[in-house]
Amino acid sequence: MRIQVPVSKPSDHTHPPLTALGWSSFFADQVGRDETGLTPLRIATVHRSRLTAEGASGPVKVNLPAASKTTDFAVGDWVLSDPKTLMFVRCLDRRALLQRKTEGAHLPQLIAANVDTLFIVTSCNDDFNAARLERYLALANEAGTDPVIVLTKADQADDTAPFVDQAAALQRGLPVVTLNAKATQAADTLAPWCGPGQTVALVGSSGVGKSTLLNTLANKTGEDVQATGGIREDDAKGRHTTTARSLHTTQAGGCVIDTPGIRTLHVSDLAVGLDILFAEITELAPECKFRDCTHAHEPGCAVQAGVAAGDVAPERLERWRKLAEENRDNTPTTTGPRGNKKPQGRRKRR
Ligand SMILES: Nc1nc2c(ncn2[C@@H]2O[C@H](COP(=O)(O)OP(=O)(O)OP(=O)(O)O)[C@@H](O)[C@H]2O)c(=O)[nH]1
Ligand SMILES: [Zn+2]
């Protein structure tokens, strides 16, 4: 969508109230007594040299001091600004932050902030990949955002049940829905997470229907519509039509953030993210004989015993191992309370 950026702020009362943009006591409580005259704005798009935001008076361009970098901001951030000049004053603390490290980059890329629910979108076709979905789940868990698996293109599948079963097995208590992103009923299916003041974000590969869903949720038509692209018939891969993140208000009185398709999601700096994702392994690990058990070949391994007993799926253990190793390799030793150094010798628990 092209966000219209008026030079002066219109005082059109058809614009959504701040609460529909996700404003809550969590943010209001951060506003100091000397800051009550400032204007709260929610960041809608982040460009290289430009930020746009939604506020009580509609969409605006945020003015940044020369020293500020737009890369410090995430779509979904709440900022305080000068009411006259719309000059940025400060960013409010985030309730949740989705972020990822990209290859070669020093600092993480900020995907979206203050997101209540992460819609992890995949399709009932060859796009479905358990290992990739687990990466997104780890990201959501770590950020403190509730994940939901959204299976699109249900209208094109003979049987959606195998997709639903596989998705539900990825994490305990994980909600899974199937829908046709192009149908208006999709908004009803997703309504439990899209109520007034709620913020959802859409992630997934290119071509799974994120922009289509956004258009359905925000009921976008004509000029406003988010561009969607076809997919290649042979491998269901999309064409990376969406190139930037953006925040939009929904019909139901909340917000939705669209993100470009991610080619490869590498993991790093995960702690609880993996523990929640692989709860069946996390729960057994304290019973292992060695505290730093890799659950591969050690004697007295409770996780291997779990595999033998049929309580842990061997392919889950294998994927846990891969993700845990990647996470260790990508996480600097200085992060985290105990650092990330590989232990020198084997420490016995008892
Ligand atoms: N039949 C059917 N087609 C769908 C569905 N969801 C998406 N499509 C089609 O799939 C194609 C890709 O959809 P997009 O919404 O552009 O996918 P995207 O995830 O936004 O892709 P990027 O912008 O590249 O990240 C479009 O032609 C959509 O019309 C669905 O549930 N059913
Ligand atoms: Zn073990």
TrEMBL record:
Enzyme class: hydrolase
Primary location class: cytoplasm
EC number: 3.6.1.-
Subcellular location: Cytoplasm
Cofactor details (free text): Binds 1 zinc ion per subunit.
Record flagged with keyword Transcription regulation: no
Amino acid composition bias (Basic residues), ranges on this chain: 339-350
Key words of the record: Cytoplasm, GTP-binding, Hydrolase, Metal-binding, Nucleotide-binding, Ribosome biogenesis, RNA-binding, rRNA-binding, Zinc
Region (Disordered): 318-350
Annotated Zn(2+) binding sites: 288, 293, 295, 301
Function per UniProt: One of several proteins that assist in the late maturation steps of the functional core of the 30S ribosomal subunit. Helps release RbfA from mature subunits. May play a role in the assembly of ribosomal proteins into the subunit. Circularly permuted GTPase that catalyzes slow GTP hydrolysis, GTPase activity is stimulated by the 30S ribosomal subunit.
Summary of subunit composition and partner proteins: Monomer. Associates with 30S ribosomal subunit, binds 16S rRNA.
PANTHER family (alphabetical): SMALL RIBOSOMAL SUBUNIT BIOGENESIS GTPASE RSGA
HAMAP family per the UniProt record, alphabetical: GTPase_RsgA
Protein name: Small ribosomal subunit biogenesis GTPase RsgA
Underlying gene: rsgA
